[in-house]
Amino acid sequence: MSGFTAFSTAAARRLARGMRTIARITFTVAGATVILGATARVVDAQTEPSHKRGWEFIVNSGTVVPTGDQRDAIARGKLTAAQLSYVVHPALAITATVGWARSRDIARVDDPKLDVFTYDLGAEVRAPHQALGRGLTVRPFAGIGAGARSYNYRSLDVDATHNLAAYASAGGEVGVRRVRLRVEARDYVTGFKPLAGNGPAATRNDVAMMLGLRLSTR
Q1: pLDDT class for 20, splitting at 50, 70, 90?
Q2: pLDDT for 161 beyond 50
Q3: Are 104 and 66 in contact (CB under 8 A)?
């Protein structure tokens, strides 16, 4: 009976973690959808009169923080991410992101170094610039997107694993004349295959936090 009780307890814990993950995904996607819709309505009413379509490029630094079950699989890692955006409207930009996080596989005894690559494409809804005085402006944004996530051991002869990924994001851009400071947080939901050996795939979560500087041409 003790073995059955232990099994039932473990199963209940796994079910509870799964329900929390599903709830988190649902609230994240729903919240991002509400933000995007509300922001779009505001921007439609406050469209900036002078706007030209164009490209924006920024290189961000930051960190990836595993959450939930992912904390038992990989370590928190430093992140470098390059973003290329095409601004199609003052309220909308299409953003492609390639990110590289330096992590470790903490599920193995030797904690081997692990490169985590993320590549995705998303839509970003932007509110109008709000002037704060003395050339200082702020502009919040929210976005959603999807792509892929790869895990590759840096020095072990093990094949990389590849998984689907989706995210919801929120952040803001603070401007001082032509200088822009961009802050963004992304909540990722990804697939996760065993990094080595066989086993069932799972759904995992992590949060990416990014900070970068760019010069605006307008």
Answers
A1: low
A2: yes
A3: no
Using DSSP bridges, classify how beta strands 130-133 and 161-176 pair: parallel, antiparallel or unpaired: unpaired
The pLDDT value recorded for residue 13 is 53
What pLDDT, in 10s, does the model give residues 107-123? 998 999 999 999 999 99
The residue among 81, 78, 80 whose CA lies nearest residue 104 is 78
Contact (Cβ atoms closer than 8 angstroms) between residue 116 and residue 147:
no
pLDDT digits (tens, 9 = 90+) for 135-153: 799 999 999 999 999 999 9
Q: Which residues contact 160 (CB under 8 A, 6 or more apart)?
A: 150, 151, 152, 153
Domains detected in the chain:
2-215 (2.40.160.20)
**Residues 6+ away with beta carbon under 8 Å from 9:** none
Residue 4 burial by CB count (10 A; 0-12/13-18/19+): exposed, middle or buried?
A: exposed
Q: Is the pLDDT of residue 32 over 60?
A: no
CA 213 – CA 2 distance, rounded (Å)? 58
C-beta neighbour count of 1 within 10 angstroms = 5
Local structure of 141: helix, strand or coil: strand
φ, ψ dihedrals at 70, nearest 5°:
-65, -25
| Separation of alpha carbons 45 and 47, rounded Å | 6
Find residue 122's DSSP bridge partners.
95, 145
